[in-house]
Structures are given as C-alpha cells and as structure tokens.
Amino acid sequence: MFETVSGVPVDPVYGSGPLPGEYPFTRGLHPDGYRSRLWTMRMFAGFGTAEDTNARFKELLAAGSTGLSTAFDMPTLMGRDSDSPWALGEVGRAGVAVDTLADMEDLFAGIDLGAVSTSMTINGPAAILLAMYIAVAEGNGVARADLAGTIQNDILKEYQAQKEYIYPPRPSMRIVTDVVRFTTAEMPKWHAISISGYHIREAGSTAAQELAFTLANGFAYVEAALAAGENIDDFGRRLSFFFNSHVDFFEEIGKFRAARRIWARWMKERYGATDERAMMCRFHTQTAGVSLTAQQPEVNIARVATQALAAVLGGTQSLHTDSYDEALALPSDTAARIALRTQQVLAHETGVTNVVDPLGGSPFVEWMTDEMERRAEAVFAHLDELGDGSMLEGVYAGIDDGYFVGEIADAAYRFEREVNANRRIIVGVNDFTDGNDDADPGLLRIDQTTEEYQRKRLDAVKTDRNQAEVEAALARVTADAVDSTTNLMPSIIEAVKVYATEEEIAMALESVFGTHVETAIV
Amino acid sequence: MLAKLGLDGHDRGIKVVARMLRDAGMEVIYLGLRQSTDSIVAAAEQEDADAIGLSMHNAGHLTLGPAMLAALDDAGLDIPVVIGGIVPEPDVAVLTRAGVAAVLGPGASAEEVVATVRRVVGRR
Fold it and tell me: Considering its fold, how many domains does chain A have in total?
C-alpha cells in the first residue's frame, strides 16, 4: 500500500507512452522504481590508514549505509607507495593509503565481502587494486565470482578532467579492456567500469558537456571491447555510470533522463545490443562537491539535500551525499552522518519513492531532457568526425588536441566570471555573507604520524616477504605487458599475493607502457 | 609562475587563477601538474619569476608549503610564495609564520587574487 502522508493512495506510475522499464528507458530502468528497491546509499569514505578507514566503514554500515565506497589517497591513486619521494605530505590525506595486500586486508577486516557491495574509486592502477580486493576475499574464503561491486577503471576521463593517469591513453585502454574481459569471464556480479562524468563536472564543465563527454567515453570503451572480440550483450551489462548532481535542479533531472535514453539508443542502434540489460544506463550519483562553500558551511546541508532530491527524481541507482564540511576538509564523523541521514529523510519521509519518474510528462522537464540530448548529440557528431567514424579514435583525438580540457577550462572560467560580476549569486560567497565569521566546524585532521606509521608498516611488509617470489612475479607482469594478447590480471593477482607493492607493480607496467605527461594549457 | 606541486591533480582552480591574472595584465607561466620543488626552482630561476603561486587541494600544504620555501632558500632565491586552495583557517597562520607570503582560500574573488599578487610582488 503506497499512499501519501495524508492517506491518499497513489499508483506506481502516471502518464502514457514508453513507461519506466521500457526502451529507451527515459523514465527509468524499472517499472516500479524505488517501490521494490531503494537506491543504494553508498557513502564514499577513506582517510588515514587502513585501520582508520575500516572503522569509518563499520560506522557507516551500522548507521544504515548499504554499500561501501573507497577513497584512496593521492599516492595510491597515482601508483606510488607511501615511501616514494612523490608521496611526501600526501599519505592518507585525501583518502586511505594502500601500499600492499597487507593494507587491503586491514581495510576490509571484519567485513563479509561476500555480503557487501564495494565500489573502489581508482583508475590508473585499477587492475592492481582489483587484484588486491580479490586476494583479500580469497584469503577469507570468498570466491571472486561472489564479489559484488564496481571498480571505477575509467581512464579516459583522467586525461580530460581528474588527471590521475600514469600511462599514455592507448596502453591504459589495454589495461581497462583486460579488466573488462577478466571480470566478464570470472566475476559475474562485478561492474568493470564506472564511466564517470562526476570529475568532468567538478573540473568545470556544463551539465551538457558532462553528459556528452561521459557517454562518448562510454562509446569508446564499447568500441575497444568490441575490437577485442567481446560480445556486446555480455559486457554491456557490466558497464555502469557515475554522474554529478549539481545545483540547477531541473537541468540535472533532464540530464539524468537524457543519459538513459541516449545510452539505450546508441547501444541498440549503433552497437547492435539485443539484450535490454546491455542498453540500460545504470548510474551512481554524487552531489556536487564544487558547489559547496567554505563560508557558512552548514548551509551546504541544504544544497546537498536539493541535489540529492534531483538525483532521486532522476532515477539514480545509488547515491553519495556530500558532507557539509567538504569545502574545508575530509568529512568529520558528524558531517558524514548528517549526509547519510539526508538520504534517509528523502527515502523514508518525503514520499518521492512512491511514484516512478514523477516529473515525466512535465512540459519543461521533457523539453530539458530533449535539450540535453540535442546538445550531447552535437558533441558526439564532432567527435565522430574527429575519429573518422570511430568514437574511440575521436576521444583519443580530443585528448591529444586538448579539446576536452579546453572546453572544460572555458566553462569553468565563464562560471567564475559570472560569480565575480555578481551575475550569479552564491549564498555566503557574494551575497548573504552575515555569519561568515562564525567559528569553523570541528574538522577532521590527518596528522603527520599517519605518514610515518604507513612508511614503517611498508618497511615491515617488505622485510617479511619472500623477495625472490616478488621479483619473479614482477618479471611475469612485465612479460605479460609486452605481450598484448595476454590478459594482465592473472599475473597482477599473483604479484599482489606475494606482497609486491602497488608501486612495484605499477612500475613493472610502466617499464613497458611509458608515462603520460600533460601539456599544460591555460 | 603557477604550478601544481606534488601529485594533486585538482587543476580547475589554478587554471581559473591563471586566466584571472592574465586578464589583469600580468605575464603568467603555468608549469602544469606534477611539479617538484626542484622543477619549480629551476623554472623560477630561468624565467626570473616575480612570484610563485601553488594550488593545493589535498591537505598537503603544511608539508609542501615549507618544503617549497626551503628549496627556494637553498637556491638563494627570494621569491614570494602564495598558496591557494583548501587551507583550513588554523593552518593559514602556520603557513604565514613559516614564510608563505599569502594564502588565498575558497571563495577568494578575482579582485582579491589580483590584489594579493600585486601586493606580494610590490613588497620585493
């Protein structure tokens, strides 16, 4: 029985035309939306040492979080160990530090990996961290086939926006494709890529650019997997997406609806998918970190709530709500709990879960959906032309010639000028500034002892391991990297199991693949 | 001269700042991502930089800020260093005491950024 707070019964869906659950899925992927299954409340967390983050994971699960999401620190994201000169000052600061399997064991200690779903935000070294996750599970008697979750593994947007790349685009695509092929064959409950617009948007793009660049990257991964001989209906089901929910309410809802429609059409019409599950754009959403202000940070709770509501009305499959203190530091316990509670209010009090796509049929929302699609299609046409009929080559060309970074930087600067000229009001920043001098909220601080602790721990692991085994395993990783027909995953899993470090494995690959250096363009 | 020191890849802010300064009539050199204190010192010396701006979003400022100052000192260069990005209020005083010329936090306006750079350069 679904009824309003006043007792008025409501149907699962209103309106006619293609309904939720029907191709092209503009109105949603499932006929009964959130009635049978709420979105996954997946809070992104990671800081300090593996033990610190393990404790936060357990708090979030106890507070009603329904999936885990791991934030790694910058050295880990870049394939560097905590004792690298490059890691100075960055160990455990923006995420959790993971150097070896020993850290990964601590990170997931006491958590049943056969029962929880885990998302890992990592790209350049995605294959290495996935290998560690598999090794932890197998060490605890959980088969890799039973693991559920997502590895971001979306390297293309790194060159466009997030900038956490290691190798040049083409060899990186081989690693991505190896992960897709490996998980397709051996991990039926795993999402091999989370094709991410989030970082594109945070770097400054518009909503339409986020939509267009993200889906274009998706088409590129599809073409790479097809070229490797994979079946579109098999791997198409394992792709998932990750979008930003920004501050302009209806623009965001139009963007989410357009994403489902465009993806379904392209997968069916251009790439020949026949299984509807391979046409479904499933996505995770995170509220817009960049929209949060350091001034009067409590006001961010209101921003996050409206952005989260847009994501829910847009039909997201899972959601991270930002903490109000994120413009200042990583979330404190209190701030993270309020962010999760915000989702619980939406899910259990507001009634928005009773009806699927409640805004479908609104002239404005339908127009906005169409407009987002038109703008995205214009970008696809440009990339298709750049790539001479190949979206994969078009995306490579757009990376090589600075198209993506240029478009994003232009949009970011346009926004900043509007704020500076007071043509755009941001509460607490350029208007309504009374209260800006209030005491700062209790922030999470990561002290320098984390770095020292992590280095000692890494030393201890290196002392205890069998060095000959490590060297043999690393030699096999390098040999497999040379042979492009061999999947890299088995040798990487073998290497992590003998406690080769993340950086050692990353460097074994780098010796074959080389590095990528971005040309600095302002 | 603007640079991203260390591994931090957040470059939206520094690129916006580069354009703000350029539009204010300054000559701006952006060294890009993944710079080390050595590479910044070398470039600053070669380009005869009037000021160095570092953007930090990864909470590494208390380590990397002083490391930059020490590297400039070792090279005998007296160039003011401005840090922008996510720097919590209590850390601003720590950095200033260590010798950082100015800290620009989130929400700093274009006028504030330009005025700060003019001020620290004018002090030389």
Answer: 1
Contact indicator for A118, A84 with CB cutoff of 8 Å: no
Tell me the residue length of chain B: 124
- CA-nearest residue to A294 within chain B is B106
Distance from CA of A347 to the nearest CA of B (A): 32
Residues of A with CB below 8 A from B21's CB?
none
State the Cα–Cα distance between residues A115 and A61, nearest whole angstrom. Answer: 12
Lowest model confidence (mean pLDDT) among A19-33, A323-337, A490-504? A323-337
Contact (CB<8Å) B60/A330: no
Query: Which residues in chain A have Cβ-Cβ distances shorter than 8 Å to B68?
Result: none
* pLDDT, tens digit (0-9, with 9 covering 90-100), for A113-146: 999 999 999 999 999 999 999 999 999 999 999 9
Confidence of residue A440 (pLDDT cuts 50, 70, 90): low
Pick the closest to residue A241 from A303, A153, A170, A167 (CA basis): A153
Q: Is residue A272 part of a domain?
A: yes
Q: What gap in Å lies between CA A494 and CA A473, rounded to an integer?
A: 7
- Give the ipTM of the model, two decimals please: 0.94
* Residue A24 is assigned to a structural domain of this protein: no
CATH superfamily of B2-122: Cobalamin-binding domain (3.40.50.280)
Residue A128: other Cβ atoms inside 10 A: 29
CA-to-CA dists, residue A346 to A122, A285, A393, angstroms: 29, 15, 42
A 79-138 → B contacts, CB under 8 A: 80, 86-90, 93-94
- Maximum separation of any 2 CA atoms in chain B, in Å: 35
A126: domain CATH number?
A: 3.20.20.240
**B1 inside 8 A of chain A by CB:** no
User: What DSSP character marks residue A51?
Assistant: H
